[in-house]
Amino acid sequence: MTTKELLAGLNILRPYYVDPDGYTIGAEHDVIYAYSTDFPLAASDVKLLCDLGWCQEDVEVDDDKDFGPDNYNPEESWSAYV
User: Fold this and answer.
1) For the whole model, what pTM was predicted?
2) Angle, helices 43-52/3-13, rounded to nearest 10 degrees
3) What is the CA radius of gyration of the chain?
4) Within a 10 A sphere around the Cβ of 65, how many other Cβ atoms?
5) What is the number of helices (H) and of strands (E) in the chain?
6) 21-61: per-residue pLDDT in tens?
7) Among residues 35, 5, 31, which one has the least CA distance to residue 20?
8) How far apart are CA 37 and CA 30, in angstroms?
């Protein structure tokens, strides 16, 4: 994932938090996490995040499919592999 894709994803998620400038991200090894949002995302924003390479790694997806907008779970965090 590029810096541009990482920042674009965070900018998409930012308005969905009660405190958009709060502590809403974390990192571990090669993954940046954006904690679950306070408000559900619009379908168009979910698609944008998926197109940028973001995913919800704790959401189960069929073995033959990648994470996509149909798998979105508002209660799960978002992940960006860098």
Assistant:
1) 0.87
2) 160
3) 12
4) 9
5) 2, 3
6) 998 899 999 999 999 999 999 999 999 999 999 999 878 77
7) 35
8) 21
